């Protein structure tokens, strides 16, 4: 078995099961604390100490972290406290506790990617997103567990609501840490489903921004036309403020100028119409999750939103038909584009990479340029079909995953609901508004490319409509 730089799942680790209530999650948002900072009634150091207490209590069961530097975090929180006291915070996220997926470079902590090739490897720079967050005053707690190179073997992290279940992947540790209340924001990545799915599993908010709207500099590359920086947060406000703090300081991935919009989350806005999507994931979705989703869509319709779906709109039916056939060509895109660096990793020895990576390399080796061009053409057809709805709809509603987190630690779950908007390249928000039994079930609000702020406004209205009594402790 391949040795990994993170310790494997311990069979004697503490177990826990906590019933999920969307109105009273484990999340601990940062945004409400800012008014207390201004009044001098609370401080970023107070916020940090509360998060450290949660880490100390919950990390043995959840195993979200690879490395931590709490002494550095305390120094950063003290500096932020002084800025708030003087009325000169760097940004709305000054003092926000943040964790960083271990696929993303940090100058002060190793970046090991859950593979022995990079065990102990130390970058001499921060990734663009990490540098921007530091410049905005964020407090970095540590690095969080990823699957191997964000596409292979799972790590030891467990779901914060039920430790017998996966947190999802590949941004496993960031989603679990935010979902458990250890941090207010977590950096992740998404090449197929790696931000939206784990956020949905762990009861957290998230944003996969439009392709290129956030910088990927300093992220370990996987597939150049699919890779995104992902933002997982304790509230919609935290997610948007974190994303904008990055975009305003680091821009996007060239030639994209960067995410556009206000510094803080736009005001919620009721949509005229939404497109309801089942995608190829509906067939594998259990009855409880189907019922929760249908009940949410019914509530939106009763609130006055026109719902377009395959039963009442021919264009939606045509889009669903496209989505039902994306699995093969989407995997072709990944396999072709990931030949490097995955082949370079395997060059260290076949035993140095896991089975999933071996399978991707075999698939890529069996392809030719014509097959890759066919996959690119299929993606363009999907993007055109989605863009055609812009004159008459304000977004798309679907699940984040085909059901709640699965009872498996080796497999991080189906990608069939999260993958489509990676391919579309438009914004997608994970909203922890639903439950299936005692487990979180994320609702996904997807939007049109480079209209991320519009999608955020609609996401805020969905939250306020479906979760009117949310708890912002």
From TrEMBL:
One Pfam family, short name please? Amidase
Q: Which domain of life is it from?
A: Bacteria
What name does the UniProt record give this protein?
Amidase
User: What SUPFAM superfamilies does the annotation carry?
Assistant: Amidase signature (AS) enzymes (SSF75304)
Domain Amidase: from-to ranges:
46-452
């Amino acid at each position: 078995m391949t040795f990994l730089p993170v310790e494997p799942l311990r069979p004697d680790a503490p177990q826990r099961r906590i019933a999920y209530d969307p109105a009273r999650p484990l999340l601990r948002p940062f945004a409400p604390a800012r008014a207390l900072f201004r009044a001098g009634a609370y401080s970023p150091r107070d916020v940090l100490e509360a998060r450290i207490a949660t880490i100390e209590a919950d990390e043995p069961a959840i195993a979200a972290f690879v490395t931590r530097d709490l002494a550095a975090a305390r120094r950063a929180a003290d500096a932020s406290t002084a800025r708030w006291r003087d009325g000169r915070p760097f940004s709305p996220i000054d003092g926000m506790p943040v964790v960083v997926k271990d696929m993303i470079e940090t100058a002060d902590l190793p970046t090991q990617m859950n593979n022995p090739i990079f065990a102990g490897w130390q970058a001499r720079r921060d990734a663009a997103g990490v540098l921007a967050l530091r410049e905005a005053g964020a407090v970095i707690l540590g690095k969080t567990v990823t699957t191997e190179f964000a596409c292979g073997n799972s790590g030891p992290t467990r779901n914060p609501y039920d430790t017998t279940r996966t947190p999802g992947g590949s941004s496993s540790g960031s989603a679990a840490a935010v979902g458990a209340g250890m941090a207010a924001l977590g950096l992740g990545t998404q090449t197929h489903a790696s931000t939206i799915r784990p956020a949905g599993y762990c009861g957290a908010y998230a944003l996969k921004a439009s392709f290129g709207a956030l910088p990927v500099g300093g992220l370990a590359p996987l597939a150049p036309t699919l890779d995104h920086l992902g933002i997982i947060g304790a509230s919609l406000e935290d997610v948007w403020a974190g994303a904008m703090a990055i975009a305003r300081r680091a821009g996007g991935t060239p030639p994209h100028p960067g995410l556009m919009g206000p510094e803080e989350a736009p005001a919620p806005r009721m949509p005229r119409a939404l497109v309801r999507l089942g995608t190829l994931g509906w067939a594998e979705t259990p009855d409880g999750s189907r019922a929760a989703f249908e009940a949410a869509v019914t509530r939106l319709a009763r609130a006055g939103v026109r719902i377009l779906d395959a039963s009442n709109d021919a264009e939606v039916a045509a889009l669903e038909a496209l989505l039902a056939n994306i699995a093969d060509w989407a995997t072709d895109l990944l396999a072709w584009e990931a030949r490097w660096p995955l082949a370079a990793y395997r060059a260290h020895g076949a035993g140095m990479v896991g089975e999933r990576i071996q399978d991707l390399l075999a698939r890529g080796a069996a392809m030719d340029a014509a097959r890759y061009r066919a996959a690119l053409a299929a993606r363009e057809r999907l993007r055109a079909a989605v863009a055609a709805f812009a004159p008459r709809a304000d977004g798309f509603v679907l699940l984040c995953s085909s059901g709640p987190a699965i009872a498996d630690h080796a497999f991080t779950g189906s990608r069939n609901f999260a993958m489509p908007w990676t391919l579309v390249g438009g914004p997608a928000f994970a909203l922890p508004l639903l439950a299936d039994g005692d487990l979180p079930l994320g609702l996904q609000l997807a939007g049109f490319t480079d209209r991320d702020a519009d999608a955020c406004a609609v996401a805020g209205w969905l939250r306020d409509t479906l979760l009117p009594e949310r708890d912002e402790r």
